[in-house]
Amino acid sequence: MLADDTDALVFSKSNAVKQIASEEVRQNLVWKNIFRLGFFHVGFVFACSVYGFGLSAVPIKWLTVLWAVICYYVSGLGITAGVHRLWSHRAYKATLGLRIMLMLMYSAAGLYGIFYWVKDHRIHHKYSDTDADPHNVKRGFFFSHIGWLMVERHPEYRRRQKEIDLSDIIADPVVMFNKKYERELFIIFCIAIPVAVPVIFWGETLLHAILTQCFIRFIFTLHCTLSVNSVAHLWGYRPYNRVINPAENPIVSLLTAGEGFHNYHHTFPWDYKASEWPYLSLNSTTLLIHALWKIGWAYDLREPSPALVQKVINEIGHKPDASYLIH
């Protein structure tokens, strides 16, 4: 593994507290997204009612429940190890085969295309919690969690997106394939395969397969992912940079395979571990990347040296007792 301390670390107080002036701007509602989110949430409530009140005449098979959990973790790792740590931050490099695998895993999550996810995330880091940030937490919990998906982008976002370098993403044929066939990949890997497997292999009813995969698993994945933008920007500890909103939130980390150590991540965004304590709170994303490094599929893993981490803590952070991380 490489300890890359040559990357510039922007951690000055002036940059940390820099804000873009707010504008009184009307952001039009995106009704297509509102109806889509509404449909899946209504389906989620119906599915919970079916299982909560025992409305189904045919009991669900335990293998179907296990399959939903597996699909949740597989698609979640496509987000964390793939579109986030690999494509957004270039925290490590991956072979072509691994990039294809991560792209398909990400497609199973049912979120929007890799190209747009990376663009949004790079803007989010550069202009965190300002009007340019697509999910600016200063506009409240609901907006930062899911409301930002229901409105058009803020004009400041549209201005600042021109500053984001996406040449590396454009040059990756795997990302461009995902961009071209985003809808088809969603239908196949988020809906068709997850629903078909329990029906074909252990005789599950189509109703149970649809309810667990298209509604319960999908909505749970969506909200756990979105909690990084909202919960982890509002509540938690800030030991690495005390003047920014992103915080260490172990609960979010448990739900997102290690993405909740957000104060650290916003301070050292290139670290493939996304945490100073990579094996606490079930940081399974780091375990996966490390395993892939062992077999040569992942390489050039980037991380700051302990000396650099300590230097940043001394200058702009506050180091509490780290025992809170294991609770």
UniProtKB/TrEMBL annotation:
Its main location: membrane. Keywords: Fatty acid biosynthesis, Fatty acid metabolism, Iron, Lipid biosynthesis, Lipid metabolism, Membrane, Metal-binding, Oxidoreductase, Transmembrane, Transmembrane helix. Residues 62-269 form the Fatty acid desaturase domain. Its cofactor is Fe(2+). GO terms for molecular function: iron ion binding; stearoyl-CoA 9-desaturase activity. The chain crosses the membrane at residues 34-53, 65-84, 96-118, 185-203, 215-235. Pfam families: FA_desaturase (PF00487). GO terms for biological process: unsaturated fatty acid biosynthetic process. It is a multi-pass membrane protein. One of its GO terms (cellular component) is endoplasmic reticulum membrane. InterPro entries: Acyl-CoA_DS (IPR015876), FA_desaturase_dom (IPR005804), FADS-1_CS (IPR001522). PANTHER family: ACYL-COA DESATURASE (PTHR11351), ACYL-COA DESATURASE 2-LIKE PROTEIN (PTHR11351:SF92). Belongs to the fatty acid desaturase type 1 family. The histidine box domains are involved in binding the catalytic metal ions. This is Acyl-CoA Delta-9 desaturase isoform X1. It comes from Neodiprion lecontei.
